[in-house]
Write a structure and sequence with these properties.
The complex is a heterodimer of chains A (171) and B (911).
Chain A lengths: L1 H13 L24 E3 L14 H5 L5 E7 L5 E9 L8 H5 L5 E3 L14 E2 L1 H4 L12 H4 L27
Antiparallel strand pairs in A: 1-4, 2-3, 3-5
Chain B lengths: L1 E5 L2 E5 L5 H7 L23 E5 L8 E4 L9 E4 L3 H14 L17 H9 L22 E3 L9 H9 L6 E3 L6 E3 L14 H4 L5 E3 H4 L9 E6 L8 E7 L2 E7 L12 H5 L13 E3 L6 E2 L1 H14 L2 E4 L6 H11 L4 E2 L4 H16 L7 H5 L3 E5 L3 H4 L1 H10 L2 H10 L7 H8 L6 E5 L11 E4 L2 H15 L11 H16 L3 E6 L5 H16 L5 E5 L5 H7 L4 H9 L5 E5 L9 H10 L2 E6 L4 H4 L3 E4 L8 E4 L4 E5 L12 H11 L11 H11 L22 E2 L30 E2 L46 E2 L25 E7 L13 H4 L7 E4 H6 L7 E6 L2 E10 L6 E5 L12 E5 L14
Parallel strand pairs in B: 1-5, 15-16, 15-22, 17-18, 17-20, 18-19, 20-21, 22-23, 23-24, 27-28, 30-34, 31-33
Antiparallel strand pairs in B: 1-2, 3-4, 3-5, 6-9, 7-8, 10-11, 11-12, 13-14, 13-24, 25-26, 26-29, 30-35, 31-34, 32-33, 32-35
The chains are: A alpha+beta (171), B alpha/beta (911).
GO molecular function (chain A): 4 iron, 4 sulfur cluster binding; iron ion binding; NADH dehydrogenase (quinone) (non-electrogenic) activity; quinone binding
Protein name (chain A): NADH-quinone oxidoreductase subunit I
Subunit structure (chain A): NDH-1 is composed of 13 different subunits. Subunits NuoA, H, J, K, L, M, N constitute the membrane sector of the complex. NDH-1 is composed of 14 different subunits. Subunits NuoA, H, J, K, L, M, N constitute the membrane sector of the complex.
């Protein structure tokens, strides 16, 4: 009898507690920054596409829902010609983000992707590419890679010596 | 055999090999860079260190470079010894100090030997904190991309390019840690075998430039075993596809045929499959619009077949199955070879020689082991490039056998061997109309008119075996040369005579056969290699059929009025006038092809056939080796193999044989039933119901990505994967993961070995045959039941004619072959048409270099710029064959020179 009354009392007290339930969608949930939600493609600090179309995200994807094709601009900078994620297959595991050598692909705290038509869950590059660096600031892959691209010639990357003079014998 | 102990486990291994290849043969993982099975050891990279112990009591041991150490009986070594492991990790750490942070944008990534070896040694983090060295790259032509930053200085590229392939323009420059591997200045790499650098280089310094234009990682390719269609040697290739287009060709090791290498025509000629002139839809000319679906096209074709009297024209570039199907459909009497009559006769002659000769026709590997070579009338570098590469190795045989074995140096000790041999070369004699790239290796060269070459050949045969017919009126010099050649051939253990059809001259081939027969009569183990014009010339000849001329006559005489042409541009095999006349006099023309050509313009019904990567089939190469090529990727319904189109036509018209054939295997058994000589082709590959553990063999690696996204833009609901009824291969990544039978290996991969170097794991011993035997079945073996017969067709001395030039066919590796000439990268290397004239003749005729010279062959007018040649015989001239803009003429032939010839510029259609 006592336990019954105690339970009722405790339940009654909950009426005065702070609410855990929020009035979604009028009120939005505050998600941790490392929440694995919608996938975006980010840009480097110079505004260039970070994705270099290396295919590692696609290879890491356990459900194979990423497909892309690499291409190059006239200066040799590689970028994806198309980049497609089939979110109707995506399990938001974040392996693609782990695999990405350039911080291009990132999972962001957004889960509001519901669609009535499944076809609309197929995201192309125009749907994925954002105008910012996302979670990881300051990294610019091409500034540390050895490839020459437009605006960065051989030997101009970080921690690089100027190109070797093949005709010199000086040590 | 010797017993060695690796980490205290005893192994029985053959002696004479080095430790590294022995360990790899035993399946051990030992990292290496500078060593290559085809090029031997130089001990430059220090990566393959192992511990070697004096005896079982020795616990300390010493570090040895395993590639430089010969196997000894009772040897004790350790691969896993901590000191050896640490040493290897350090070495790779040093190699990586300057390696750029490029893997993500590097074409080698995912198939990179350096990546594999780095992971294998466990080197994870770069400890070197200083700046990285950089280099300026070079432009190396349309085939290869240069990215010098990635170099680890293993020297493989120059060792391959200079020492193995005989190239001149790639070298190592500068000194100490500034070594630069490249050309003296930017420019196109001259070697015809430069593409192999992409595979020889353990990292991404040299990569395939054509792949870069539609880059795909190796793990993302759908791959299948295929056979090169660009010459008669039948090199084995792996073709890779992604998103419906062919992406690259890589070497598929075949110990008997191409080994580790391919020529550039074979490696980069694949782009014709993606070319704009592909036929992707069947056309019915009477319909509007012409492009139509499969069933309408089939109906239209059947209607034409029912209305007319049908003959068929096959093709030397179509598979055996397609030709056989056509032959069955139109009947044996109505089946014609779509090749010029001269080519027809020469191919038949070659087949007859190989069938009836006591001499064996050696495979490419056996040619490499020949210790004396005599080439008659063939410019191998341009007609059968990989054979030229084999000859380059053959000239090293005699010094290897004599000096090196005497000095007790193992042949894999590459640096020591080359130091000892220097520029010494074995006997190689070349008798050709004009200079070739192999001349630099030759003991003697002989530039002359074809008749003179044949006469020299007959004379050699006569000297070796006096019962073979002699040559009258030979000059002293020539007689002396013939004697020298005969002596060299008689002295050799494995002499090989090489000739072929490219000269278009029967007497040369007959002379080559005579020499071989003479050597055999003297009980030498001689070999004869005859190159043929096209990939399946041999298969077509073995099928039998009538000449092209008789097809023309059949229509002219009203015997037939409808023609089915399978994968053949007749304008490349007969004169323009004759073909146009023929096609116009045919009431209806049905063409099956995959590239638009002048012939397809005349087609009333054009059926879209599958190119080599979209078809299954068998090719028979010049040594009579039947080899299967597999379809690489599923095609849309409208494109299918020619034999499938013809089979469907046959089924609709209720052909009494074809209606009973269901699928690929039935065609093979029908071929064997019809042609007992081809017994064995049904066993070239396992039948289509072959399974391992109940599973198919996947064409895609297990890391294949994007399955659920590739076609999601079309429809988010995934389609059922296409099925392959013709082979035990699946178009997916599911299936048996072990090693498939050697004839159907879709790609080489082993755990920890992602690059093509994983082929080690597929070989019985490193550099030897594939496990389960090398792919392909030889249909022609020496037959001793025929009596040795010597041809007596010794030609007369060549006499120049005033006002005329004897036009000889000249071949070009890039441009002379029909399919590869449609490839964008190859097109950049195709030379401009020209006419090569002897320098003295030109002086006499007051012609200068570059001047346009009008002439006529068989009524066909030409006007081409003159190219002076000091080597071509006086009274003859060389016309490049098959180049875009050079019309067909049956060569060799006399040309009438007419300086006043009225030349009206004509509109030329090139495709």
């Amino acid at each position: 009898m006592f336990s019954l009354l105690r339970s009722m009392w405790l339940t009654f007290l909950h009426a005065f507690h702070k609410r855990d339930t929020i009035q979604y969608p009028e009120q939005k949930a505050i998600l941790p920054t490392r929440w694995r939600g919608r996938i975006v493609l980010s840009r480097d600090p110079d505004g260039g596409e970070r994705c270099v179309a290396c295919n590692l995200c696609a290879a890491a994807c356990p459900v194979d829902c990423i497909s892309l094709q690499a291409t190059e601009d006239e200066h040799g900078r590689r970028y994806p010609e198309f980049f497609r994620i089939n979110f109707s297959r995506c399990i938001f595991c974040g392996y693609c983000e782990d695999a990405c050598p350039t911080y291009a692909i990132q999972l962001v705290p957004d889960f509001e992707m519901g669609e009535y038509n499944r076809q609309n869950l197929v995201y192309e590059k125009k749907d994925l590419l954002i105008n910012g660096q996302g979670k990881y600031h300051g990294y610019n892959y091409y500034k540390v890679a050895g490839m020459a691209i437009g605006g960065k010639d051989k030997g101009e990357a970080e921690n690089e010596r100027p190109p070797v003079d093949v005709k010199s014998l000086i040590p | 055999m010797a017993t060695i102990y690796i980490d205290n486990t005893p192994f029985e291994v053959p002696t004479g090999k080095n430790l590294l290849e022995t360990c790899l043969t035993l399946g051990q993982d030992l990292p290496y860079f500078c060593w290559h099975p085809a090029m031997g050891s130089i001990g430059a990279c220090r990566q393959c260190a192992v511990k070697v112990y004096k005896d079982e009591n020795d616990t300390k041991g010493k570090l040895f470079m395993s590639c430089m150490e010969q196997v000894r009986d009772g040897m004790r070594i350790s691969i896993v010894d901590p000191e050896a492991k640490e040493f290897r990790a350090h070495v790779i750490g040093w190699l990586m100090t300057n390696h750029p942070h490029d893997c993500a944008v590097c074409d080698e990534g995912g198939a990179c030997h350096l990546q594999d070896m780095t992971v294998m040694t466990g080197h994870n983090y770069r400890n070197y904190t200083f700046d990285k060295r950089t280099y300026i790259n070079q432009y190396l032509g349309p085939f290869l991309n240069h990215e010098m930053n990635r170099c680890i200085q293993c020297y493989r590229c120059v060792r391959y390019y200079k020492d193995y392939a005989g190239g001149k323009d790639l070298d190592v420059f500068a000194a100490h840690n500034h070594l630069y591997f490249g050309r003296a200045e930017d420019g196109v790499l001259e070697s015809e075998f430069s593409g192999n650098l992409a595979e020889v280089c353990p990292t991404g310094v040299f990569t395939d430039k054509t792949l870069k234009q539609h880059y795909t990682r190796k793990w993302d390719l759908t791959m299948a075993a295929s056979v090169c269609h660009h010459c008669s040697l039948g090199c084995n290739i792996t073709a890779g596809e992604r998103y419906g287009t062919l992406r690259n060709i890589t070497n598929r090791y075949n110990g008997e045929v191409n080994g580790y290498f391919l020529c550039d025509r074979g490696r980069f000629g694949y782009e014709h499959v993606n070319s704009v002139s592909r036929i992707r839809k069947s056309l019915v000319r009477s319909n509007l619009p012409e492009a139509t679906d499969k069933y309408t096209a089939l109906q239209a074709a059947v209607q034409l077949m029912r209305q007319g009297r049908v003959i068929g024209i096959g093709s030397p570039r179509a598979s055996l199955e397609s030709n056989f199907m056509l032959k069955t459909l139109v009947g044996e009497d109505n089946f014609h070879h779509g090749v010029s009559d001269a080519e027809h006769d020469l191919t038949e002659l070659s087949l007859k020689i190989l069938r009836e000769s006591d001499a064996r026709t050696p495979s490419l590997r056996e040619v490499e082991k020949a210790d004396a070579v005599f080439i008659l009338g063939e410019d191998l570098t341009n007609t059968a490039p990989m054979l030229a590469l084999a000859v380059r190795q053959a000239v090293r045989q005699e010094p290897l056998l004599e000096q090196v074995s005497e000095a007790k140096i193992p042949v894999w000790q590459d640096a020591a061997v080359r130091e000892l041999v220097q520029s010494e070369k074995g006997p190689l004699f070349i008798a050709v109309p004009t200079a070739t790239k192999l001349d630099e290796l030759a003991t003697q060269t002989y530039f002359a008119a074809p008749d003179a070459i044949a006469r020299l050949g007959f004379a050699v045969a006569n000297i070796i075996y006096p019962e073979s017919p002699g040559v009258r009126g030979l000059k002293n010099n020539d007689l002396h040369l013939a004697q020298q050649i005969a002596d060299a051939l008689m002295k050799a253990k494995n002499p090989v005579i090489i000739s072929g059809t490219s000269s278009g001259h029967e007497a040369i081939v007959k002379a080559a056969a005579n020499i071989t027969n003479a050597l055999v009569a003297k009980e030498k183990s001689a070999g004869i290699v005859l190159t043929l014009p096209t990939s399946n010339s041999m298969g077509l000849a073995m099928l039998g059929g009538h000449r092209l001329q008789s097809a023309f006559e059949a229509v002219e005489n009203g015997y037939a009025d409808t023609v089915i042409i399978v994968e053949n541009d007749l304008y490349r095999h007969a004169s323009e006038g004759a073909v146009t006349n023929f096609l116009k006099s045919c009431k209806k023309v049905i063409v099956l092809d995959y590239l638009h050509s002048q012939t397809t313009e005349h087609a009333d019904v054009l059926l879209a056939a599958g190119a080599f990567s979209e078809a299954d089939g068998t090719l028979i190469n010049n040594e009579g080796r039947a080899q299967r090529f597999y379809q690489v990727y599923p095609t849309i319904e409208d494109i299918q193999e020619s034999w499938r189109w013809l089979g469907e036509l046959g089924t609709i018209v209720a052909h009494d044989q074809i209606s009973w054939w269901h699928g690929y295997d039935d065609i093979l058994s029908a071929i064997v039933k019809e042609h007992p000589e081809m017994k064995g082709i049904e066993m070239v590959t396992p039948p289509s119901d072959f399974r391992i553990a109940g599973q198919k063999i996947p064409r895609e690696p297990h890391r294949f990505s994007g399955r659920t996204a590739m076609r999601a833009n079309i429809n988010v609901s995934e389609q059922k994967p296409a099925e392959d009824p013709d082979s035990p291969l699946s178009y997916t990544m599911e299936g048996y993961r072990g090693q498939p039978p050697s004839s159907m290996i879709p790609f080489f991969w082993a755990p920890g070995w992602n690059s093509n170097q994983s082929v080690n794991k597929y070989q019985q011993e490193v550099g030897g045959h594939l496990k389960g035997g090398d792919p392909g079945i030889r249909l022609l073996e020496p037959d001793t039941s025929y009596e040795v017969s010597f041809s007596a067709a010794v030609p007369e001395k060549f006499m120049p004619m005033d006002g005329h030039l004897f036009i000889l066919p000249l071949h070009h590796i890039f441009g002379s072959e029909e399919l590869s000439a449609q490839s964008a990268s190859i097109q950049e290397r195709i030379p401009e048409p020209y006419i090569a004239i002897n320098t003295d003749d030109a002086l006499r005729m007051k012609l200068y270099e570059g001047q346009l010279m009008p002439f006529a062959i068989d009524g066909q007018l030409y006007q081409l710029p003159v190219k002076l040649s000091p080597t071509i015989a006086s009274g003859t001239a060389g016309l490049p064959v098959g180049l875009p803009g050079v019309k067909f003429a049956e060569l060799p032939a006399w040309a009438i020179l007419n300086r006043e010839l009225q030349w009206k510029p004509q509109h030329q259609t090139t495709f």
